[in-house]
Write a structure and sequence with these properties.
The strands form three sheets. Strands 6-7-8-9-11-10 form a six-stranded mixed sheet. It is built from eight helices and 14 strands. The chain is α/β, with parallel strands linked by helices. The termini are far apart. The protein has three domains: about 50 residues; about 120 residues, Diaminopimelate Epimerase, Chain A, domain 1; about 60 residues. It is about 25% helix and about 25% strand. This is Amidohydrolase 3 domain-containing protein. One of its GO terms (molecular function) is hydrolase activity, acting on carbon-nitrogen (but not peptide) bonds. It comes from marine sediment metagenome.
Length: about 300
């Protein structure tokens, strides 16, 4: 397949230009006055009519799989109060799982994090999970706590924190490694929509000029999903993968996956490790305590001895 892009401008060059693509590879870029193509035939010809032709964009740091998984989630980014969050989440009534994403409690009129009690007013029977925009802290309702087996006696996981009310009962706020992100998003309703969501995400990216993206801190299951999507012809964009700390247990497989680089669209580029939390979740590790929480020094997700 041979494609011609004609009559376009370049930002840093004068005149009009031609570009020839053969079998998906750019073969020729030449000034219109220097290229004689009258005898060549092309499968497609795109006359750009003196507009600019630009290279596509690359997003070097994003979380493609989480964005894809949450594509069907309720968008909470614009919420200015817990009440707004509640109103938006009510739209999910009828689903087997209600997921919201993107809230920022520092913008809320109430000047606090939501708790399970706020989510229980929507439903105490349907599992509800909302994730802050930085993905280091989230809130679940009582049904999710029950499902996860989290109660007053549950010990904080290493590198994570279970929020509690003054009486010691869990308040639904979960931080870093206490987050049940993978467990919640393993729900059949979301898992079944993963493929369709990725196709929609891919179309959205192409409209914005993105053809190469990254996915930071994923596991082997997600990598297998991308490879399957490419093998079946669904994946059209480049995906640069950075594996998480769990994958370090299988170093031979990491080497095997990296040996495939250059053979397709999905390439394993490295590792993304979280040493500590984030300041938005008050879990970034500090030598001195947080001024608004004298007993909190943050969290180390990977201990020095490990």
């Amino acid at each position: 397949i041979s494609i011609l892009f004609s009559n376009f401008k370049q930002i840093d060059k004068k005149g009009l230009w031609y570009l020839i693509v053969e079998d998906g590879i750019i073969q020729t870029v030449a000034n219109k006055d220097e290229l004689h193509i009258s005898n060549q035939s092309f499968s497609k010809v795109h006359d750009l009519k003196k507009n600019y032709l630009l290279p596509s964009f690359t997003d070097a740091h994003m979380h493609l799989s989480l964005y894809t998984l949450l594509y069907s989630a309720i968008n909470l980014r614009d919420c200015q109060s817990i009440k707004e969050v509640q109103e938006k989440l009510k739209k999910g009534i009828g689903r087997e799982l209600i997921v919201g994403w993107g809230f920022d409690h520092e913008q809320f009129q109430e000047e606090r994090m939501p708790t399970r009690k706020d989510l229980d007013t929507i439903s105490s029977e349907i599992p509800i999970f909302i994730l802050r925009f930085d993905e280091h802290i989230g809130v679940v309702n009582s049904e999710v706590l029950r499902h996860l087996g989290i109660n007053q006696d549950t010990i904080d996981p290493e590198g994570g924190k279970i929020g509690r009310f003054l009486d010691g009962q869990p308040n639904g706020i979960l931080v870093d490694k206490a987050l049940p992100t993978e467990d919640i998003l393993n729900n059949s309703w979301i898992k079944n929509s993963m493929r369709q969501n990725l196709l929609k995400v891919q179309e959205e990216f192409f409209r914005k000029g993105l053809t190469s993206v990254s996915d930071m801190g994923i596991n082997f299951d997600t990598l297998d999903f991308y490879r399957d999507m490419e093998e079946k012809g669904y994946l059209k964009m480049r995906v640069h993968v950075y594996l998480n700390e769990v994958c370090l247990k299988e170093k031979e497989r990491i080497e095997k996956e990296m040996s495939k680089n250059g053979l397709g669209l999905v390439q394993v580029r490295g590792l993304k490790l979280f040493v500590d939390g984030s300041f938005g979740a008050s879990s970034g590790a500090l030598y001195e305590p947080y001024t608004n929480d004298p007993n909190n020094y943050g969290l180390l997700r990977i201990l020095p001895e490990n």
